[in-house]
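General statements about sequence and structure are easier to judge against a single worked case. For one protein, we set the task of working out the structure tokens from the amino acid sequence alone. This step matters because it turns folding into a mapping between discrete strings. The amino acid sequence and the backbone structure tokens for this protein are reproduced below.
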Amino acid sequence: MPSTLRSAAGAGVSSSAQCVDLYVEKVMVPRVVLLSLLVGLAVVAAFVARRCCCCCRRRRLPSPPGSVNDAAITPSKPQHQDTQLLAWFARLLCAGAVWTAIFLLSFQSYDFLSSGGGGALSRPRVVFSFTTISEGITKLRPTLDALVTQDGPGFDAIYVIVPRAYRGTPLEIPAWLVPDARALNRSDFFGIGFATGASAYHTRVRIVQLDVDFGPASKVLGALLVEHEPDTVIVYGDDDRVYPPQLCERALHHGAKFPHDAVAVLGGWISAEDALYCGRSLEVGANRVSFVGGAGGVAVKRKFFGAGRATLAAFAVVNMSKACFLGDDFYLSHVLSTNGVARRLVYDSCWTIKQLGVSYPRGGLSLAPSAHPGGANVEHYQQCIRELGRGQDLSGDGEFGWLFMAAFSHVWGAVQGLSSWLRGDGFVPC
């Protein structure tokens, strides 16, 4: 089904020890069901086609003179063969249905790893990072409260990334966060200047003040400046969200399960615009997507963005158009794709977009006014795709490959367009 963003569903929040990995229910079982349906339809289609061919062949064969009595006597054999074939087909279909039911009923949710990871020695360093601006920096307490009270060991550090100036106006950091911003330690990363230091709010909270505003993508770019260990797990998110207490442990769990992928609970498939595809993302029952959304939290490894000077490529957004600058979900996914990192949705009973609270009401790009039928987010994604080039639209990174997803999308676009046309709203495939 179409949606601006696709979210993973789950049950209510519980302690980390009771969290359940829903990969079987949300990914494996739907695929088995879909495969069973497709195989069943293929068998039925083959059987119907065979019967039609046999009927057509019999009608085309001429009946020689004087063979009426023979024709009346001999058809019992082929009819008997067809009856046997139909009986075997029915048995096969019933057996397949029974075994599929047994398969589905025998599977239960499971955890790939224990919620505590692989023990203290194998637990990687894990940090959380988000950016904020003048509007939100005074309203962060609920977000920070949730991040510093995580189950288990929790995050080793929580980075609050702020620009030195926002839209030309110096951004003032409240005293409860940093008593004196001038006391922050100046540093440099291959020419990118910033200041960093501990926060008075909590020992694990640290401030990173950027000399240059890199936009919403600063939520992870700022962490790249201070975290250099390749296997450090960086979970990045938004400043207006209240994350569940199990986020840290579940991010580690799914990160260990998919060690080479970025994992999230929000994302979708997207492609460049054409007559039947307006840029919407699609909910397809898959777990590998084109882009992931930071609102629900995204877990990556530091090495996914390169090492040393190679990291600088991710900071090119500062010189790009407003569309790429504000479309951070697409831009960061594009950076990951360029580095060969897949983006994957995960399904968990304790980590879902529906369970997130809100620390303060914020409009955001998704709610901004837009003449585009897909909304402001899609409008910016499409403008960024045009800037980067159609070959950079990430459509080939989605589940099942570009061809399947493009066919699915265009069929849905045609249905949506015809539906809107019948309502008198014109042909709008969104």
Notes: The chain has two domains: 23-59+74-106, 126-399. The chain is about 35% helix and 15% strand. Confidence is low (pLDDT under 50) at residues 1-14, 108-120.
